[in-house]
Write a structure and sequence with these properties.
The chain is mainly alpha-helical. It is built from 6 helices and no strands. The chain is 69% helix and 0% strand.
Length: 124
């Protein structure tokens, strides 16, 4: 709940953020599989930073237990969706690029920020 992990964000807010992007994955990957193109964040939300701010603000009232439940449920849905997608639709495609950007390519940055924060906290 403590801010300062990534600027003003807490671990809780990072979980909300990562979950929001996984929810975007679940919204956009089926569209991409059908040959569609998701809207640009610049057109829909005035950019990715605005999207991030809106999504995290929408969930500031949720208790940590609900944030964790939603994160776990959403992540399980992403895994199930990927497992149900034919392999020829996944590799080297717009599908794969979107999956990487919204999920596993996104995790290391936040994981490292949490690790660094934990070390700083234990030393300070």
């Amino acid at each position: 709940m403590e801010s300062g992990v990534t600027k003003a964000w807490s671990v809780r807010v990072i979980l909300v953020h990562v979950t929001s992007w996984e929810q975007e994955t679940l919204k956009h990957l089926p569209l991409i599989l059908k040959g569609g193109r998701p809207s640009l964040y610049s057109a829909t939300y005035a950019g990715i930073n605005a999207f991030n701010a809106q999504m995290t603000a929408r969930k500031t009232h949720l208790p940590l237990s609900e944030v964790r439940r939603e994160q776990s449920s959403t992540h399980s849905q992403v895994i199930a969706f990927i497992e149900s997608t034919p392999q020829d639709k996944v590799g080297g495609t717009r599908f794969h690029r979107r999956l990487r950007l919204d999920t596993y390519g996104h995790y290391p940055k936040h994981t490292e920020a949490i690790r660094i924060w934990r070390v700083r906290r234990s030393l300070g």
